Structures are given as structure tokens and as C-alpha cells.
Hints:
Blueprint: E1 3-6, E2 16-19, H1 20-26, H2 47-54, E3 72-73, H3 78-84, E4 87-88, E5 91-97, H4 103-116, E6 121-125, H5 132-137, E7 145-149, H6 157-161, H7 163-184, E8 189-193, H8 199-202, H9 207-217, E9 223-228, E10 239-247, E11 270-280, E12 290-297
Parallel strand pairs: 5-9, 5-10, 6-7, 6-8, 8-9
Antiparallel strand pairs: 1-2, 3-4, 10-11, 11-12
Helix pairs in contact: 7-9
Amino acid sequence: MSSAVFSTSAAHGRPFVLEVEDVAEVCPQPSAGRSFEKAPRPQRIAPGSLKAARFAGVAPASRLEVRPAPEMVSSGIAAMDALAGGLPRGCLTEICGAASSGRTTLLLAALAAATRRGEFCAVVDASDALDPQSAAAAGVELDRLLWVRCGEKSHNAEAHQTRQHSAEKCLEQLLRVADLLLESAGFGLIALDLGDLPPQTARRIPLTTWFRFRRAVERTPTVLLAIERQSIAGSCSSLLIKLRSTGTPVEDQKVDSQFATPAHAQLLTGSEITAELVRSKMNRKPVGSAEIVFANKTAWAS
């Protein structure tokens, strides 16, 4: 057995001995009648092809498919349809305004139009504010309406003290029910009535929740309405309409001969409502300030 002497800089000039057989085991030498295949040489990849492979699944903006405009359905009010084109399917629409601004009038008109088309509708009522008799008088087919009551009215002192806690509980119920209804995908219109909740409570809904609602209603024939005091969904809503009342016409009154003012209460027959189109993503051009005025009447006055 032969040996070989090696010296390295790590050994500081001190030689160490390795057996030749040990070296052969580490780096075997080709022997007679034995051949080794050469390792394949690495291929060079051009920078341009590497970049192309990296972005192979990314389509350029010029080749992106343009999403078709959503189908618009009637809101039940001709003037509103002329302003906004109707209500978009598969989108979130916000209807906001103060009390007595016409929110319920627009909601009932949309429900009546949807039920007349043979569609089933759902109203998630956070404050138990819907009046079935008024809905029936407005033309809503109640046998096609699902009314989810998230809270019951109570006027005792204890309920007044815990009103804020009750509002938060009703809001949690509304959000859970909304998720279930959107997953069912069997309704032509779903309305989330947040109009009577305190604004500070309604603003607690995170934008991620509105984004989830928007994604859930996409590519479905459902019209999703949010009835609110103030806009809280932000850019998640495709249509934003702001309502306000401009006047209150009254019935002919009996005036006391000794006074210039009515002796008793005035009878409300209706009011004039102004609707402003604040945002519409259905139009390619920015929405300008557009307003309409329409009137509503009480059921007994019509």
C-alpha cells in the first residue's frame, strides 16, 4: 500500500499522510474497461427568456377582459330610474339620508317592483321598523317577502338604558343573517335596513365586511341594498344615492276664526323628496351633481 504526502495552508506547513486507497475512494480514477459519463453542462438562460417565464401567467392590461355592465332593474320610481338607470344586479347600492328623507319610500317601491317581477325579496330589519300594512299598501306582495326582525321595540326604562348594547347586538345579528342570505343566492333583492341604528354603531362595520358582501353578490342576479343614515360602505358600493326631504304638503285644514294657525294637528298627506346621485360605477365618466325631486303620499291619502 502506497501513501502520499499533502500539505495545506490550514496545516501551517505541517504535512499529513493519506493512504492512496482513501484518496481513490474520494476521487476514483478511471480504470481500464470502466468509463464514466460526463456530467451535462449547465445551459445558459437568456435574461429575456427568464423574464418571459416569470410573467408567463400575467396578462397585459390591453388584453384584459372588460367586465360587462351589470343589468339594471327598475327601482319602482320612474324619476329614480331616469336619474340612476335603475338598481344594478350583482352590486351593492347605498341609500342614505336622515329620518323622514324618503328612505322607506324608496325601499318599499323597490320591493314592490321586485315582487311584481315574480322575485323573492328579503329585508333584514335591524330596528324592527318595517310596517307590513304600509308595505302591502305600497304594492309589495308579502307572500314573496322574507322579513328578518333583528330587534323588538321596547319603551321601558331598562331598555332605554341599554339601547346602545341592544343596537350592537342587532347589528351582529344583521351581519350574520346577511352572510346566510347572500350564500343562498335565491333572492332577487336583499335589503339591509340600518336606517334607525345610531350612526356610531353602523360605522363599526369594517370595510372588509362590505368587501365580503360585494364579492358574495357579484355574478348573481341579486340587488343588494343598504339603507343608512350616512354612507359607510365606501368604495365597496357601486351606486350611492342621497335623499333629503324638501317640504311637507298638508291636507286642507280647518282654521279657527279667531286665530291664523290651525287649532289642532295637521294631517300629513305626503312630502317632496330630493334624490342626489353621489356615485355610480356603471358610468365610465365621473358622475356630476345630478338631482331629481319626486313626491310620496300616505296610503290613506292616495
